[in-house]
Design goal:
about 140 residues; alpha/beta; Rossmann fold; 5-stranded parallel β-sheet; about 45% helix
């Protein structure tokens, strides 16, 4: 297992996801890619002043998440492993799968929030989407409630 892709969303499950990835990466001396996928910007119709304000807000959020991702990349947990951080924007499931293919990752580690069947039916589940379509093993770490 040479390469592990770790999907992080900075939620309460992120620490557990990283802990799980650390255990696997140390056991196999794997390279680790921390991936955060920012949702795509909303489409705007017309030329009102609002979209610029929204874009500035989104840009600020992305800068903050980039800093958080860099902190995770520089953390001492990966003392023996190569760690790289990636921040991309787009549809979450598709981007995770594209990065897995691009990196030829042997494992994807990600969290599950356990919202329940109704939430998954209405909103969808990133973990479920990746599980259904990935062509490598997936380690899903449940949230600690």
């Amino acid at each position: 297992m040479d390469t592990i892709l770790v999907a992080v969303d900075f939620s309460s499950v992120t620490e557990a996801v990283i802990d799980a990835a650390v255990g696997v990466s140390r056991a196999f001396d794997s390279s680790v890619y921390l991936l955060h996928v920012e949702p795509p910007e909303p489409d705007f119709v017309g030329y009102e002043a609002g979209p610029e304000t929204v874009r500035e807000t989104i840009a600020g959020k992305i800068r903050q998440e980039h800093r958080m991702l860099q902190e995770l990349e520089g953390a001492p947990w990966h003392d023996r492993n190569k760690v790289s951080a990636l921040l991309i924007q787009g549809p979450t499931v598709e981007k995770i799968l594209q990065e897995q293919e691009r990196l030829n990752a042997d494992l994807i580690v990600m969290g599950s929030h356990g919202h329940g069947a109704l939430y998954s039916l209405l909103v969808g589940s990133v973990a479920e989407g990746v599980l259904r379509r990935a062509d490598c093993p997936i380690l899903v770490v449940p949230s600690r409630r």
